[in-house]
Amino acid sequence: MTSEIDPALLALSGSKIEILISCNNLADLDEFTKTDPMCVMSIKQFGQWKEYGRTEAIRNTLNPRFVSSFIVNLEPSVTQHLKFSLYDIDSRSQELKHHDFVGFTDVTLDKLLNYPKTVCTTSKNLRTAGDSRPRGMINITTEILKDSKNKVSIHAQGHKLDKKGLFSMNKPDVYLEISRSIENIVYLPVYRTEIVYKSTNPRWRPFEISLQKLCNTEWDRNIEFSCWHYSGSNYHLIGRKITSLRDMNNQTMNGHYKEVPLSSPKKEKSGKKKPTYTGSLRFYQFRVDLHYTLLDFIRGGLELNLVIAIDFTASNGNIDEELSLHNISDIRDNQYLDAIETLGSLITQYNHDRQVTTFGFGAKWTNRDLPYCFPLTGDQNRYTVKGIKAVTEAYETAVCNLKFGGPTCVAHVIEKAANIAERENISQNKQVYSVLLIITDGVINDLDRTIRRVVSVSHLPLSIIIIGVGPADFSLMGQFNSDREVKLKNDKTKEEALRRNTYFAAFKKDNTNTSANISAARESFAALSMQILEYMKINSIHPNKAKLLRTEKEWFDPDNEKDDMEVSSKLIKVTSSASLSGLSHNGPSCPTCGAQIEPGSNLYSDIDNCL
After folding, report:
1. Which of 104, 355, 401, 427 is 20 to 30 A (C-alpha) from 183?
2. Omega into 588 within 30° of 0, i.e. cis?
3. CATH classification of 151-289 is 2.60.40.150, yes or no?
4. Helix/strand/coil percentages in the chain, nearest 5
5. In a 3-state reduction of DSSP, which class is residue 176?
6. Helix (H) or strand (E) holding 356
7. Residue 127, class by beta-carbon neighbours within 10 Å (0-12 exposed, 13-18 middle, 19+ buried)?
8. CATH second-level architecture of 294-538?
9. pLDDT digits 0-9 by tens, 365-419
């Protein structure tokens, strides 16, 4: 019952708990060598134990400290039974029955926590059924994890390490181990490199480790770098250095590397004031890679500038024909409006003034002299309108005054959108990213020229989303999908796009399956999110300090009762059109996962970091 749950545990509901394992004095089950231990964690479900995960196996040790850990979600409303079993690994078999069983212990997760402390270590004796002999002790350390997607990239080398072995003449077989402090009492390993044999200057392969794993995002927490010699039967500590992430990150480069000295563990134990150094570590790379989400940028004031371009070529069919893709006699059956309202409304939620630049192409106005790529308003001095409803109104007016033509060329459209993006002059303090939404009924005719233009603008804060409508075969458009491993390339200069900046999706004609188009819109927005993050990373732009959303009067027209964005109680409520109603929300939501913003809350603070 909920009333019986510890209120302290309720405060942790949904938290991720990391479980780290070490052992002491394990039973030695090998005749000629020491036990090769591995820990297996199981959870009880419906009265049955089910394996949850395994650590790595460590050779020849009765006192293992495992790098692999277990991460579980805390659910205070249920009793979470855990069992930890130790095995002596004797072969490569994945089946546990082929390995010697050392012992086990079981416990409930709540007994391993000591809130409000974030770290707790519990030691328990291992046992086996029907055997009273000691099997060793297991130390179970739990820590409440802090959310972070950041990583540290490391490339390290030992330098002039002490020799080991008989008369200290042998070059050591060395691996590097990184450990984090547990309440400044003990250190538990979080990463272990491969062994480099017979070298006093071993260089290990570059690797990445998450900030969460390294120090649980605590920049001033002690971490230990230690070099070990493995003789085949024993482990010998060569030297170690205790530092912190902040100190390592701030340390200046000595030429091409950062260098830290290693101290002798024996001299430390002897109590000598002056440490004896046993070599050093050189870090040719020690870089903190900050991995942000789109919402981090949105909270910091990033705005998305939407540009819409609509295909009015003759292949759409005459507007008077029932099967015309531009037929507006029943707007529920118009895929162009569906794409504008579904995807356009998602994007404009992240622009405070909701100004949308609109173009049409592939047609001529019946009574005006306008270029191939013309303003949807029909006014060459006015390309922008306010809000998606204004876009749909401009579309419905334009479609009745156009003579459809051709061909389907979009390079000009991309060039105009690129000019807009370039004029925004994005910077750390001014974060504006442009999105060109092209809606077309067929494969574009200037494909090579379009690809060349896409490549040439890939350095700009611009993404190009192409939505295909109608029954055409869009297979050739798949090359614009951003999930392709191969980047677009200029066929003449062989220049490759700096980054992926395009995405293609096809909208379905069947109106009875609106969920498919909503899914396509969300997938498009997810691809857009990744492209924005890639651009920001390439240009070393990070999120600004989070800002509170303020609803200003100019956000909506108080004289227009049909305005598609109504502001009430600091909640923006999207009410426009049929396709949006399919999203089943009463306010702005995360377009990728659909998380809803509650009334009265900050627009962005309640959205999960799902991007």
Report:
1. 104
2. no
3. yes
4. 20, 35, 45
5. strand
6. strand 355-361
7. middle
8. 3-Layer(aba) Sandwich (3.40)
9. 877 777 788 999 988 888 999 999 999 999 999 999 888 988 889 999 999 999 9
CA distances to 47, 530, 560 from 300, rounded to whole Å, are 48, 17, 31
Q: Which amino acid is at 390?
A: A
Average pLDDT, integer, range 50-66: 96
Residue with tokens 């220049």: 495
Q: Is 369 in a helix, a strand, or coil?
A: coil
Q: Do strands 137-144 and 186-192 pair parallel, antiparallel, or not at all (unpaired)?
A: unpaired
Angle ∠(500,501,502) on CA atoms, nearest 5 = 105
- Measured CA to CA, the distance from residue 411 to residue 575 in angstroms comes to 34
DSSP secondary structure of 380-426: TT--EEESHHHHHHHHHHHHTTEEEB-----HHHHHHHHHHHHHH--
Q: Give the amino acid at 165.
A: G
The per-residue DSSP string of 152-171 comes to EEEEEEEESPPPBSGGG-BP
Placement of tokens 């609109």 in the chain: 358
Map out the domains of the chain as residue ranges: 2-144, 151-289, 294-538
The answer to whether the beta carbons of residues 402 and 364 sit under 8 Å apart is: yes
Peptide bond into 407 cis (omega under 30): yes
Q: Which helix (H) or strand (E) covers residue 299, if one does?
A: helix 294-299
Query: How far lies 75's CA from each of 9, 31, 85, in Å?
Result: 9, 43, 23
The C-alpha torsion from 329 through 333 and 339 to 345, rounded to 10°, is 70
The structure tokens listed for 574 are: 């999207």
Q: Do domains 2-144 and 151-289 have the same CATH topology?
A: yes
Contact 586, 556 (CB under 8 A): no
* Mean pLDDT value of segment 505-509: 79
Residue that wins the pLDDT comparison between 602 and 412: 412
451-488 residue pLDDT tens = 999 999 999 999 999 999 988 878 778 778 756 566 78
Strand-pairing partners, residue 360, are: 310, 374
Mean pLDDT calculated for residue range 195-217? 96
326 and 469 Cβ atoms separated by less than 8 Å: no
> 484, 419, 422, 472: which is closest to 444 by C-alpha?
472
Neighbour-count burial of 314, counting CB atoms closer than 10 A to its CB (0-12 exposed, 13-18 middle, 19+ buried): middle
Q: CA angle 385-390-391, nearest 5°? A: 80
Which homologous superfamily is 2-144 in? C2 domain (2.60.40.150)
The whole model's pTM is what? 0.62
Q: Taking every pair of C-alpha atoms in the chain, what is the biggest distance, in angstroms?
A: 98
DSSP string, 89-111: --SS-S-GGGSEEEEEEEEEGGG
